[in-house]
Amino acid sequence: MLRPRLCGIAIEPMPPPVHGMSSKEKHVITQNRRGVGIGAALIAAALAITACSSSSDSAGAKGSDAAGPSASASAASPVTIKVQSWLVGDDPTTVGPTLKKIDAMFMAANPGVTIDHVGLPFDNYFTLLRGQVAAKAGPDVVMAYNSSATLEFQKGLLGLGSYYTAEDRKGLVGFQYGTDTQKIDGEPYVTPILSEGNLLYVNKKLVKQCGADPEKIPREWDGFVKVLEQCKAAGVVPMNLGMKDGYAISWYTQNATAQLLSQDELLKSADGSVPMNNPGNVWALNAIQDLQKRGLYTPGAEGITVFSEARNNFAAGKAAFHFGNLSEGGQLYKKPLGADLGVALFPKIPGDKYGDFIVAGPGVGWAVTKWAKNPDMAAKYIKFTQSQEPQQMLFDQGGELPANSATAPKSDYAPVQQTIDWLALPDNHLGMVMSTEAGAAIWKNATLLLSGDLSADDLIGQMQAAQDLVNKTKK
């Protein structure tokens, strides 16, 4: 089974799921989506927000078994675990409240332990975390992504390998094929709480108006484009798009590189050795420009954000098709679209090397900081959130796909159940990993690519130049 790693572009691991329109609805794939230069004021804010714990680097050991002596608490020795996430900070309706319920369950099962869960906005989250790592102070547990993006913060995180048995690793999506950090030093630093990926959403009602069968969306790219042309001719917006922030490009690069690169190339992409002008990236960027020239995207897409404007447009029935994250169907579109919502796999590109698969892998996860005063209890909390009952709650109440394979969610909503079924496809995997710097070149130039003011070749050249600088600093 080919499953290299998470969210190709390290700049923000994968169009993250939905978790609250204001964060995840802002998406997609990166450690510092909106750039790194927010400066000292935000770093100071990070330290103030989290009621900083010890600034020492004393918790560098990998820790004993999570059930060991220091993992227990009593009324005589109360323990407070400070947890930091953007899901609690940005999602007031589904995932955030569910996590709070899970926190309460953990505290009830562990008398004397208090979970102090602080929510931060996703937009500035990784800038704030960067400041905390630099100061060696902040929360005990932090939310992060299971991807190469974690490497930026590795010096501030505790290795979690000793807390997970072979059986644990087999049961969690993130351990099923290894995170990027595991490949480098054999030690996992982030373990998953959710699964993530992306697929094609279909407005069945509009597709019928286009004269096409929504239950038989062509599997080949050229056939799919013909359906888009039919929609245009029928006066229906064919493909939903928001390109203002650039994150929508990731669905194309992820799917194209996942189809056109070999397993070896996908695995090697984490070290920056795979050239940016590979067939996947070349196809993806040219395909975006081609659809734009044909008039098959939402008009004015250069001024529309992916999170949450483009998603809101699709929910409002303003386009026939939409590329999005796995959890969007149940969270965002079930109520407004109901039986009119369908799902489909990303169309096959000429040269596809695999069978049917969905771009999917480990999503957001947890890490323990090196300065945590009680790393064993922090790890115990993380493992609790990954256990079957909390995972089922995240699915039932938040619509999130679980990272624990022992959790077998069922949905009475056909598009969601189909998505769950596709997660069992044997060839499921992710596309290539890009450095934060290479990814930033994409986001910065997305609207220029869409307008045709920048060619695909020129953008790829900028991506390669950025990657070359990263590779040079590694030597």
TrEMBL record:
- Cite the entry's keywords alphabetically: Transport
InterPro entries tied to this protein: Bact_solute-bd_prot1 (IPR050490), SBP (IPR006059)
Keyword Lyase found: no
At the top level of its lineage, which domain of life is listed? Answer: Bacteria
Please give the family membership noted in the entry.
Belongs to the bacterial solute-binding protein 1 family.
Instruction: Quote the protein name from its UniProt record.
Output: Extracellular solute-binding protein
Native source species: Nakamurella antarctica
Q: What is the lineage of its organism?
A: Bacteria, Bacillati, Actinomycetota, Actinomycetes, Nakamurellales
